[in-house]
Design a protein that fits this description.
With 377 residues, the chain is α/β, with parallel strands linked by helices. It folds into 2 domains: 2-148, Enolase-like, domain 1; 154-376, Enolase-like C-terminal domain (TIM Barrel). Helices cover 32% and strands 24% of the residues. It contains 13 helices and 20 strands. The chain has helices spanning 11-16, 93-101, 114-124, 129-147, 151-155, 174-184, 200-208, 226-238, 253-262, 279-282, 293-296, 299-311, 325-332; strands at 7-9, 24-26, 33-36, 40-46, 49-56, 61-65, 67-74, 77-84, 166-169, 190-194, 215-218, 241-245, 267-269, 288-292, 315-319, 340-342, 354-355, 358-360, 363-365, 375-376. The strands form 6 sheets. The protein has an 8-stranded parallel beta sheet with strand order 9-10-11-12-13-14-15-16. Strands 3-4-7-8 form a 4-stranded antiparallel beta sheet. Strands 1-2 form a two-stranded antiparallel ribbon. The longest helix is centred in the middle third of the chain and has 19 residues, at 129-147. The chain starts with 6 loop residues before the first strand and ends with a strand. The structure holds magnesium ion.
């Protein structure tokens, strides 16, 4: 494993001085910030994720993803959580640390009060989903450990029914796309391809020169013309694509509904859907939703979203951001309840902190717990 690069945040000092933002200084894991002081103690520290390859989607490229690691301790047991903040969602290390420094868990007598605690977090601010997800994941890990059972068992899910996960290939030159496809084609049963630029058909042809695996495509809102998008989707279907994610800008609901009605492939909302409360507005415009813990505040709300989507006859995809195996293993607990899984964020980084969910013959394999079942690397 590469040397871990930490950046500490002098939250306590900033809070003491009444500062609203945090000063970033180089620090190590030993310099965790601790808040609270009741039965549960909350600790956190920034951790920058290093990507194994430059990651390009239709709107930007990046080599790192900012993150914050969270630990909640209760009765001598530690639960692990994580916030990951890809830049397009507008969150940052500073915003997450500021939120976490305002969380007061000592008013709660037990980590099992998940509904109360998550409702309380929503009173601190309406947004800050990654920070809330970090707490939610840590509490779930903690409660699973206290019960001595893996989360999927507590949820009532069959771990033998996890879906294959897609492995994502970003937009790149044909040489790099060919190389990445060769590297992963025999380890996965389905690949996810980022599209949304003029080079889409070349991307697909390049991949098809290497493998006949089924493909999912994600346009990340990159297509602008609905008729061209429809024509593209018919072409993609002929070329073994089985799923289309976020084809048009999220604001264009009417155009998306038009497209979904005519599309031969399921259309899944990603950027258009964050939380449970967003589902009614997009109902009818998409065939399904991509649930990500960093968007929806964590497992508690994700499970409500699954129930709502199922009641409305919508498909469920469980996705992730670039994350360590902590948040990815949390998302993978939901895999038995999903139609599609895109839980590969831990496979895209070179400095993972945990061993957790793995991929075997293309299928997600859940650790036996308790809680998330993570092992620190
Ligand atoms: Mg997406």
């Amino acid at each position: 494993m590469k040397r871990r690069e930490f950046i500490g945040v002098s939250i306590a000092a900033a809070a003491a001085a009444g500062l609203s933002s945090c000063r970033l200084v180089p620090k190590g894991e030993s310099h965790k910030t601790t808040v609270g002081g009741g039965k549960m103690s909350l600790r956190f520290y920034p951790y920058e994720l290093q990507l194994a390859h430059t990651f390009t989607v239709s709107s930007y490229s990046r080599n790192t993803t900012p993150g914050v690691q969270v630990e909640i301790e209760y009765d001598g047991i530690t639960g692990y959580g994580e916030a990951s903040m890809p830049p397009y969602l507008g969150h940052s290390v500073e915003s997450v640390c500021t939120f976490l420094s305002n969380v007061d868990l000592k008013q709660f007598s037990s980590p099992f009060l998940l509904e109360d605690i998550m409702s309380y977090l929503d009173t601190i601010s309406p947004g800050d989903a990654p920070a809330k997800a970090a707490i939610d994941i840590a509490l779930h890990d903690l409660t699973g450990k206290l019960l001595g059972a893996p989360l999927y068992q507590i949820f009532g899910y069959n771990p033998e029914k996890t879906r294959p996960t897609t492995f994502t290939i970003g937009i790149d030159t044909p040489e790099v796309v060919r190389q990445k496809t060769q590297e992963c084609a025999d380890r996965f049963n389905i690949l996810k391809i980022k599209v949304g630029l003029d080079s889409d058909e070349q991307m697909i042809r390049t991949i098809r020169s290497v493998t006949n695996l089924p493909l999912a495509v994600d346009a990340n809102q990159g297509w602008k013309d609905r008729q061209k998008a429809l024509d593209e989707i018919f072409w993609l279907k002929e070329n073994g694509v089985v799923l289309v994610e976020q084809p048009l800008p999220k604001e264009r609901l009417d155009d998306t509904a038009w497209l979904t009605e005519r599309s031969p492939l399921p259309i899944i909302a990603d950027e258009a859907i964050q939380r449970l409360r967003d589902i009614p507005a997009i109902k009818g415009a998409y065939n399904g939703i991509n649930i990500k813990l960093m968007k929806c505040t964590g497992l508690l709300e994700a499970r409500k979203m699954i129930a709502y989507a199922r009641a409305e006859g919508m498909m469920v995809m469980v996705g992730c951001m670039t994350e360590t195996s902590c948040a990815c293993t949390a998302a993978a607990q939901l895999a038995p309840a999903a139609d599609f899984c895109d839980i590969d964020g831990n496979l895209l980084i070179s400095n993972d902190l945990f061993k957790g969910v793995t991929v075997s013959d293309g299928l997600l394999k859940l650790p036996s717990g308790p809680g998330l079942g993570l092992t620190k690397i």
